[in-house]
Automatic annotation (TrEMBL):
Its EC number is 4.2.99.18. This is Endonuclease III. It catalyses: 2'-deoxyribonucleotide-(2'-deoxyribose 5'-phosphate)-2'-deoxyribonucleotide-DNA = a 3'-end 2'-deoxyribonucleotide-(2,3-dehydro-2,3-deoxyribose 5'-phosphate)-DNA + a 5'-end 5'-phospho-2'-deoxyribonucleoside-DNA + H(+). NCBIfam families: nth.
Length: 211
């Protein structure tokens, strides 16, 4: 795919949704960190339902530690893998309190030192809470990037690196949100909605289905 096409794709995605946001509910970087940690293999809706009850009671590392492991589990037991997620969040809170003055760190290295925080979670927090132009490549971004030809890659890391290199600067900050939303609602894994897709004429997917 050439630069002009890529620019046109992001121009259209931006025109449709000028200020894209995560669908996870959060007010502070710490809330976002907890929500993203909980969202692995869970829906944003399910996470929002749980955090709507958790955050009014505990939305700081100290408050979560005060709840304790069993107390935290009570709030998140509707979410898949809640046992290990609760353990990771408690351990992460301990590190935040002792090493980071209870603040969420703003570097990838420091974030990925926290239990349960991988590269993707760190990228989401850096981008969405701190405005850094990172690419948190999830299954949706991986699929859309490969199908359209925006950034082809055999694994998420390759797609991440190519997106960072190939996305025109003006779109870098929001690109991952546009691609996630496009993959979640239009370019779905099974039966992509090519007829309703606003970039169908630019997409290079050989199997796109247009009437
Ligand atoms: S045309 Fe189809 S395959 Fe291409 S981006 Fe749109 S929905 Fe996805």
């Amino acid at each position: 795919m050439n630069k002009e096409k890529r620019t046109e794709i992001f121009t259209r995605l931006r025109a449709e949704n000028p200020s894209p946001e995560t669908e996870l509910a959060y007010d502070t970087p710490f809330e976002l960190l907890v929500a993203v940690t909980l969202s692995a293999q869970a829906t944003d809706k399910g996470v929002n339902k749980a955090t709507a009850k958790l955050f009014p009671v505990a939305n700081t590392p100290e408050a979560i530690l005060k709840l304790g492991l069993e107390g935290l589990k009570e709030y998140i037991r509707t979410i898949g893998l809640y046992n290990s997620k609760a353990e990771n969040i408690i351990k992460a809170c301990e590190i935040l309190v002792t090493k980071h003055d209870s603040e969420v760190p703003q570097t990838r290295d420091e974030l990925t030192e926290l239990p349960g925080v991988g590269r993707k979670t760190a990228n989401v927090v850096l981008n969405t809470a701190f405005g850094q132009p990172t690419m948190a490549v999830d299954t949706h971004i991986f699929r859309v990037s490969n199908r359209t030809g925006i950034a082809k890659g055999k694994d998420v890391r390759q797609v991440e690196d190519r997106l960072l290199r190939l996305t025109p600067k003006e779109f870098l900050l929001d690109a991952h949100h546009w691609l996630i939303l496009h993959g979640r609602y239009i370019c779905t894994a099974r039966s992509p909605k090519c007829n309703a897709c606003l970039i169908s004429d630019l997409c290079e997917y050989k199997e796109k289905t247009l009437d």
